[in-house]
Amino acid sequence: MPTPTEAAGTQPSPAASSSADTPVIEFVDVEKRFGDNVVLKDLNFQVARGERVTLIGPSGSGKTTILRLVMTLEELSGGYIYIDGQPLTHEQRGGKRVPVSKKQQKALRTRIGMVFQQFNLFPNMTVLENITEAPIHVLGQTKAQAVQKAHSLLEQVGLPDKADAHPTSLSGGQQQRVAIARALAMDPEILLLDEVTSALDPEVVGDVLNILREVADTTNVTMLIVTHEMGFARDVSHKVMMFDGGRVVEEGHPEQIFTNPSHERTKKFLGAVLGH
Ligand SMILES: Nc1ncnc2c1ncn2[C@@H]1O[C@H](COP(=O)(O)OP(=O)(O)O)[C@@H](O)[C@H]1O
Ligand SMILES: [Mg+2]
Fold first, then answer.
1. How far is the CA of 60 from the centre of ligand 1 (A)?
2. What is the set of domains in the chain, with CATH numbers?
């Protein structure tokens, strides 16, 4: 008689394909077009578990599109995206590129959280409802569980007394902190941050970045970050990828990219952003 473990070993489940060294995010020959505009072409990269990668590059270089593809907010035009080794939108079957089931997509999608430049809170819901909506309706948590977690997250982002407020009564910095709490409420494996401080008054940018630094320091969440805050990028990321025209110009350790970039395009971009 085989032991249960041996028996399970003879029929690998899909999850068995995901091991410690399976990338959490993998782009394979990704292409994205908007009409005739080819925004991403033959894009290949991997993000390891717990890795924090910052995407930099000029406006229009495709950074937001990359995050929105991972979030399944945009349709892929070609290629494949894998989350923990599992196809997110399309897979190869019998030599053909076919869509994955909605069920699989939805399951993978619950592991991913995103914070947007413009907060995107639900205006008709209170702060508490914003944070508990998905844990209750997507993860199936009880209301009590979700509410308890929401209060602890509001504490963490420095808004313990705003649970019953409506987003419109909050400042931009406060709304963005709620948006971060909302994303964290799903316990995401992957957190996507798209210029989360670009719409904020300068004096509150530091508070929001400190909350994210703490998330980086205290969790193993994999992060894909788009930011113009180069100090933050340098502190929290393991890797920086410089994009231009939907292609990776260069990538490397933040120290190398920021102090000794190899490419003229990167030097020019950083010169403009850092103001020298
Ligand atoms: N919904 C859309 N419809 C048409 N074109 C789009 C859309 N979203 C982005 N684009 C185009 O894709 C390119 C990359 O945009 P984006 O990913 O937003 O760049 P970035 O975030 O680096 O500024 C730009 O040329 C932009 O005009
Ligand atoms: Mg963008």
1. 6
2. 23-111+188-276 (3.40.50.300), 121-187 (no CATH)
